[in-house]
Amino acid sequence: MTHSSFERIGMSRDYQEKFLLEQIEEYDQLLREHAAAKGANRNLIKTIEKQKAARVERLKNLLAEEKKDDGLVFDELGVDQIFIDEAQYYKNLETPTKMERVAGIQTGGSERAFDIYMKARFLDQQHAGHGVTFATGTPISNTMVEMYTMQRFLDPEGLKSRGIEHFDAWAANFGEVIDTMEISPDGASLRPRSRFARFNNLPELQQMFRSFADVQTAEMLDLPRPRLEGGKPMVVACPMSDEQRAIQQELVARYERLRSQRVDPRVDNALAITTDGRKLALDARMLSSDAPDFAGSKVNALVDNVVAIWRRTEPTRGTQMVFCDMGVNSTSWGYSAYDEVVSKLVARGIPRQQIAAIGDADSDAKKQALFEKVRAGSVRVLLGSTAKMGTGTNVQKRLVALHHLDAPWKPAEVEQRDGRILRQGNENEEVAIYRYVTEGSFDAYMWQALETKARFISQIMTGENGLRRADDIGGQELSYAEVKAIASGNPAVLTLAEADAEIQRLTVLQKNHADEQFLARRNLRDLPSTIERLSGRLANLTADMETAKTHANDRITIGKRPVSGKDAMDLLAQALDSVPQHVRELRRFPLGIYRGLRFGMVLHPQFAPELYLEGAISRQYTLSREHHGPRAVFNALDRVAGSYGSECTRVRQDLGVSEGQLRDYQARLGAPFPHTSYLAELTSLRDRLKAGLSGGQPTEKEGESQPTVAGLAGQIKSLKAAHTIEATPERAGKRRASAEEPVTVRIRRQAGITPTADSEMESPPPAPRPEGADPSKPDPLSPHGRTNTAQAWSGRPEIISTKQAAVR
């Protein structure tokens, strides 16, 4: 079912009214809390009151009657669980908060997100913990605040149990909010805007996220996807024209005025400069009507590459995709990057009917028809923006190349773009991804920033980030230092980014070292008692084994009467008949002596009975609840008495392992982090380089010369070259999975092969209960003491799986 069709299934009037009252109560609670606070801001109270009033009106009119199917309501359909693909579409969820206009949090959300939220809450009430499953490749697209929104959908009880169900409480625990000014949408006034400058308590935030998110990345799976040529996207570097350099210097001058003068943000601001810089990187004609067609531009490089690939893949009718978010519409002087690309491709020999732009398909039916043409190879070059061609575009069958003509804003958009070609169903063994970069331009730096952000998001999602604090990833405008460094073509900008990455890597290693030291201290405290316990168990088992050997030929004693053969069976049956079938509390019933060792029954109020055999140590064996007669007891006695040798071997091995671990931890305890001085020196150089790029002068000791930015960058490179560190160790037990191959592939491969029936397997007898276990506690290895897997998962919050890993 499509998203829009699902939205048309409304909730009943009764549930909407109930949900309305709950939502209004949230705003009432905010009003009460804020009114009781000292120095309460009256304007903010009015804002919350307006939000409450708007909420009431919106909830009453949210589901328009003409959009809903008469008589069909979601809460009466009997739905137990819903699986929602492309869940990133529902991030614009309205959130009650005392903070106004926090980036990533919607105080005026979308109808689509609210519709899903209402249905998710209903299903959570009906089936707590497993009513909704989200699948998305980009759960975090531009700010970590989105983790809160996802948890509202999937794990509201997790937020409530921690006392952070309201966003203000969540923000107080995990973020530092600062206030800035921005232009209002009408461009006529300024308004305050809050955003997260940085996030705190990242390990706890990651742990909370992983409690309801099942993250699967391409590295964890073995998906049948095409191989990427060169192992990574290929960068096509293009030189700047003289016109681009001149205009870029104007951008630097604009930023200089922002710093030195009080420029009205409605007239000029950092985001506007950054946007113009991105346009300039695409082509100078995006900003200047007088700029000529530069032969070395990105557009011309793209055309050359597309034509060459088009000719090379003519026999297989290979297709290509071109992504560009700018230049879709013509400027006031008539320039459009899209129109120029199409016209130049046609001029180079590609038939016009083999080129299409996604914007020409203005309906779902036209899109599907266009996609079918691409899959068939009749349309071989498809142009589009990330918004229109990033998701839901399944044309990968013949795709051989994907071209990024510009850099998007967010790492999630890069992932969505690349996901069009690196996916199952592509018939090519190897494909290529090209990124076109104008040297010394804004987009060159933006690609670098996108990679840094993407790596950080990946570390947050997979739990491999070792930092406690980090800046948020949501900023889009470049700083003055970044603009100036880019314009000057300063290679120190890249060196700074490399130093940041190296410091982050060293920080992870330092954290792992601290974890190892903590583990060593804890094990040095616990291992001596473990060794003592294992040594005692080994001695007791050895003694009981010798006792069993010595009395191997003795008759069995039932009660106080030695018997053998059929008499032993009959007498044991009588003794078992005297044992009650049910007990209200744990009770032990001695039965006799077997091979010099005492034996009897342990009855539990709720679990199956157990046989015990004890001498110096007690060993238990779980019997069947239905079959625990004399024959079952004798069989169990034979098994337990015959397993002393193997148990001694196992305990002896465990003892040797523990003794080896003790020696190892003693040797490692107190070892210093081997890269402490390297980390400190690199951090100092990085900070001084950052200060130098910002226009400040780093503080130096008296008598020493002031280093230049180039000198600091050289020192960082020399320092890195002199230190080779091991790779960041992967977490132990890192899960890897394999995707099931498509059913059509299996059918073709297995054509003509007759499947064999599964052979029946005899269930092994239940294992003996561990020695020394408390008979008052259920056996974790017994069928009745073991946690039921399905029950354990049913109480677990639902999952988010990345689109890269989801098996479609």
SSE arrangement:
Layout lengths: L2 H5 L5 H24 L5 H20 L20 E4 L25 H16 L5 E4 L10 H9 L1 H6 L5 H8 E9 L6 E10 L2 H9 L16 E2 L5 E5 L3 H19 L9 H13 L15 H15 L6 E5 L13 H11 L7 E3 L6 H13 L4 E4 L1 H4 L9 E6 L6 H8 L11 E9 L3 H21 L7 E2 L8 H9 L3 H59 L5 E3 L2 E3 L1 H13 L9 E8 L2 E7 L6 E5 L3 E5 L7 H13 L1 H25 L7 H18 L15 H14 L20 H7 L18 E2 L19 H6 L5 E2 L7
Parallel strand pairs: 1-2, 2-20, 5-11, 6-11, 7-9, 7-10, 8-9, 10-11
Antiparallel strand pairs: 3-4, 4-12, 13-14, 13-15, 15-16, 16-17, 17-18, 18-19
Helix pairs in contact: 2-3, 9-10, 9-17, 11-12, 18-21, 18-22, 18-23, 22-23
What does this structure look like?
Residues 181-191, 699-703, 727-748 and 752-808 have low confidence and may be disordered. α9 packs antiparallel against α17 (480-488), α11 packs across α12 (337-347) and α22 runs antiparallel to α23 (709-722). By secondary structure, the chain is α/β, with parallel strands linked by helices. The chain is elongated, with a radius of gyration of 35 Å. The chain is built from 25 helices and 20 strands. Strands 5, 6, 7, 8, 9, 10 and 11 form a seven-stranded parallel beta sheet that branches. It starts with a helix and ends in a 7-residue tail after the last strand. β13 and β14 form a beta hairpin.
